[in-house]
Amino acid sequence: MLANFSFAQKTEVEDAVTKLTKLMVAPDSLALDKLILNNLSYGHSSGKIETKQQFIHSLVSGSSDFVDINLTDQTVTVQNKTALVRHTLNAKTNDKNIPGNVKLYILLIWSKEKAGWKLLGRQAVKVP
Known about the structure:
Elements: H1 2-25, H2 29-35, E1 36-43, E2 49-50, H3 52-61, E3 66-79, E4 82-95, E5 98-113, E6 116-126
């Protein structure tokens, strides 16, 4: 029984990651608002840290423009109401109309709330 519970939790977290990834490519401010906690800490590989409002604005405005995102090597660890997700993000970008490619290691921190898993934190580092 416990194994099924943890498998279900892991699947819910993976679904939340998929939803976030799709919203980063095709931003919808209302859907992003529902998926992200108000006290989000969103860390970029450059060292820049954004709040929830700044993160959503950068996606919706196109200043952070993901054309395509591919996630690989994903692991999910669920501990009570917290989930840690690590993966490698390969993306085509078009920030400020300048095409580019990024490859980053990502750590996502998710919190289990009444309405499901919500993003609390994210940190990216450049792949050496």
